[in-house]
Amino acid sequence: MVYLDLFSGIGGFHKGILDAGVKIEKCYFSEIDKYAIQIYKRHFPNAIELGNAKYIKGKMLGEINILTFGSPCQDISSLGYGQGLRGKQSALFFKAIRIIEECEPNIFIFENVEELLSSNDKKDFECVLRLFSNIGFYNCEWQLLNTIWFLPQNRPRIYLIGHHIGKPSGQKVFPIIPSFAKHFKTLENSPKTFMACLTTRSSLARRIPDFGWIYTKKGIRTLTPIEYERLQGYQDNWTEEISDTQRYKCLGNAVSVPIVKMIIEKLFTIHS
User: Is 73 a catalytic residue?
Assistant: First the structure.
């Protein structure tokens, strides 16, 4: 498996692939946040850093078996800037499209916020589908998945998978029926515990006071960085060695590992 991890963050996609039992022989990654890069390198020291995705030349990388990307969502998110897919941050999506066209991976997996489905009067998701279609080599499938199927965090995200029609590209994944989600329904609705979608603890978070807080018998307190890690499916102290502020930011931007693991297991018919 040769793997290209775009907008790699703290390595959630990479970890999910490994947790599913898939061996990665070579990994390239692209990220610009220095704290996320520090975490990524610590956990995946053999990964080859490519720098800013704007400057990656896909044809120079050779064969890529799987490419993943969760391009920045700040312009699309309901807590964000409201500029849609062509906002300064979310427009990086188009860089990923170019790289996919250049290196033609067997499989690509795209993750983004639920609001992409309705952003810009639904024109943004229509644009996404049209761009993938215009590449011409991929059959695509997508579904809205939620972290609460595995962990007590309400975090709906859209996942879109592209299967190259001329290369080995895994099995059809969607639809996934969350029959195992019932265990967390009481947590989702409990007045004693509120596990909302994790934020980056910025000024955006302060617009909704409940975000990042938990109700306990002793009162209300903030979630700790380790609790953020657990709610995203990472081991304790995955993000240690940087400030708590940066840990919250990195984890708020990360993908949920159990969701990635589930997708990869179904993609390659792995039975855990």
Answer: yes
